[in-house]
From TrEMBL:
The keyword Coiled coil does not apply. It comes from Marinobacter orientalis. Coiled coil: none annotated. One of its GO terms (molecular function) is transferase activity. This is Biotin-dependent carboxyltransferase. Residues 30-311 form the Carboxyltransferase domain. Keywords: ATP-binding, Hydrolase, Nucleotide-binding, Transferase.
Length: 312
């Protein structure tokens, strides 16, 4: 093992879905390869920032819980995102702050209390096999992850880390940056190219009604249940699909597409969630309520650029 490639954790119990995610895989969608990367960009970026890592460093995304890790060396870590009943050596683990752990310490992820996805960063960043320029794990496409084959973590796996150039100072994220994922999510939506083809009643309902997160939700997308939206366009030539695109199939129930989405689609689009809105949606449990809020591209772009700049 190289000097920079060190054993960091051993998996003593594997949960249903724990994936290595860097910033994502870009410049390859013309090949039919999707983006991957963190479903919750906000929590992922804060985990790296607290761990003293550069933007794009590999972080472990734990969905739902059920994971147990044993430290194989002294490490500085940060836990952000969902409250999955995380225990550190049997005690409640501090979240949204740096934490120094020692060899033999145990991290246990239980079940969702507040949100769906937790993020674990380690100073230096987790290390995985790069495929098409990224280690982002996409299970469907069998790309990335710790083994390069797109596998979620399994019992007995070893998680390798880069040696940290320096350890971060102890710090915590401001309380204003620690969302309560149980609250109604207000999602900024940029109107899309086909929005004028929806009926006036449908547009009113889209931005004034409450929507419920359906059971059919994963890293590809989230189906929402509510008023039936009607569009005068019967079919479209398939076109490129971006992160956060809100497609409306013939049943009138919108689908917000996330990181592991298909690369093209032919349903009309109500619009596009901003990256941070898509992140917020990714933390919603089935049955939770969300609302759409119309947003302008200039203000949304300024907020996103500021967010990225703050976390680089």
């Amino acid at each position: 093992m190289s000097e920079r490639n060190l054993s960091g954790f051993r998996v003593s119990r594997a949960g249903p879905l724990a994936l290595l995610q860097d910033a994502g895989r870009f410049g390859v969608r013309h090949l039919g390869v999707t983006q991957g990367g963190p479903a919750d960009l906000h929590a992922w970026a804060w985990a790296n920032r607290l761990a003293g890592n550069a933007w794009g460093s590999g972080v472990l995304e734990i969905t739902v819980g059920g994971l147990e890790l044993i430290a194989e060396r002294d490490l500085t870590i940060a836990l952000t995102g969902a409250d999955l009943g995380i225990k550190y050596n049997g005690q409640a683990a501090p979240r949204w702050r740096t934490l120094a752990i020692t060899i033999g310490d145990t991290l246990t992820f239980g079940s969702p209390v507040n949100g769906l996805r937790a993020y674990l960063a380690v100073a230096g960043g987790f290390r995985g096999d790069t495929v098409l320029g990224s280690a982002a794990c996409v299970v469907r496409e069998q790309l990335g992850g710790f083994d390069g084959q797109g596998n979620s973590l399994r019992e007995g796996d070893t998680l390798t880390v880069n040696r940290a150039e320096h350890l971060p100072a102890e710090q915590a994220a401001p309380e204003s940056e620690q969302p309560d994922y149980r609250q109604t999510a207000v999602l900024d939506l940029l109107p899309g190219a086909q929005i004028a083809a929806f009926t006036g009643r449908s547009l009113f309902d889209a931005f004034n009604a409450e929507w419920q997160v359906d059971q059919r939700a994963d890293r590809m997308g989230v189906r929402l249940s509510g008023p039936r939206l009607q569009c005068t366009i019967g079919s479209l030539v398939s076109e490129g699909i971006s992160l956060g695109a809100v497609q409306v199939p013939p049943d009138g129930q919108p689908i917000a597409l996330l990181n592991d989405r298909q690369t093209i689609g032919g349903y009309p689009r109500l619009g596009n969630l901003t990256p941070l809105a898509a992140s917020r949606l990714a933390q919603c449990m089935p049955g939770q309520t969300v609302r759409f809020r119309a947003a302008g591209i200039d203000s949304a772009l300024r907020r996103h650029r500021q967010f990225v700049q703050d976390h680089k």
